[in-house]
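Q: I'm writing up a methods section and want to include an example of the input and output format. Could you take the sequence below and give the corresponding predicted structure tokens, formatted cleanly so I can copy it straight into the document?
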Amino acid sequence: MAGKKETFVSLVEVCWRGMTRIMAVSFVVILLSGIGSANSVTTTTGHAVQGSVSEVRWFPAPDVLTNVYHEILPQADVLRNAYQLALQGNTASEAIADIQKAITVCEAYIKANPNDTVGSAQAYGIMAYGYFNIGEFQTNDDDKLKSYTAGKNAAQKVVELEPERWDGWAWYANNLGRISQLKGVIKSLFLLDPFKKHLFQAEKLSPNNPFILDAIGDMYRQLPWIAGGSMSKSKEYLERDVKADPNYTLAKLDLAITLLEDGKKDQARALLTEVVNAKNSSWRAHWLIWEKPKAEALLNDMDNYKKLLDKWHMLI
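A: Here is the clean output for your methods example:
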């Protein structure tokens, strides 16, 4: 019995690692409503945070954000510009630098507008996402723990200020999962329930959101059957996801992996090829840093895909 218990605990830890990885982009545009064109972002206190705002479209058009991703769009230009800054980057180092600038803007906005509940919730949402991705790109475990803790705290603020927003619940789950991984297997097991609670509350608040469909679809693939894992449910959620946004390359990558696990190599190969050759990925930075290189690696060594998934913490 002891050996079985240890195996189950290990499986839980690995599935957490996979679930939280998915959501690293799964909820990125909480607040954006347009493309800024300034070369710096100015806070309401007059403090300008320099950061080149690219003219490249790093995210879907506003109508897609509203109609497909069901976003509550901000009115404050400074937050739109800050979020745009947090979404761009051709490399991990570029992304970290821009996210840090965006976080500085959000902190200044919150301090200068203590009575703006909506704006503050939006700013905290940007911070929760930003800190999570900074943690993903960092290499030192202590630095990662600090970033994920800051992200979890920011997400909690969103939940407290506006509990009907799905993003606060989702980013709390993301950061909590990473914290548990850094602290060990037993901690991960004890935090599984609150993790699921926040994930499914996010689904309840935005049931057709492509970000959430992807997170749940990959969760069902990662979970052991004894904890509710289901390959058929994984495929169902991810197919809905691709249909909801055909340009969401993360959904295509995750669906391809589910198909590989289900022995359908030809279908998986077709999807992976689409990911590599994508011209208009909805989330360009994440496609460049995450989806494209992984899809290329899988296409080049499909027979050993399990080793690659294990390396990326995407396989139980």
